[in-house]
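Fold it.
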Amino acid sequence: MTDLKRLLEMALRSEIDSRDIYKKASEMTKNALLKEKFNFLSREEEKHRIMIENMIKMKFPNEDINIPESTEVPLPRITVTEKDPISKLLSQAMNAEEETSKFYASIAKQLDDENASLMQYLSSIEMSHYYFLRAERDLALKFENYDQYFEMMHVGP
């Protein structure tokens, strides 16, 4: 059986990486609505990081937390540039959210009921992010240039 503490530390790495990716995506986009959605996801991932960190502290009170440089779990990497269509970023983020959900569900199987519930909750939240991103990706595929800034786009009430 894989070491639970190590799995939770990898989950921390995943949340930190996701938070940073969404923050960078927010900086890359010119669309104010999409920028706010990426900021929302970044804040969500930070909340998850805190939850997992608290779980580690509770389960392993006298041990240091060692966040790995990368995860051993095969979570999809997000690699996009400013030249890539926004749909590519959204598709990669969807894959990462889906795999993170599966990863958290697998960790839940190794925990007691109370902590398993938290990991199942996080797994469900990651899938909600997947659907959130899928809706944005579907829009992007229809309107690939929707990330472009149109001068009057955000004028209104």
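The chain is about 70% helix and 0% strand.
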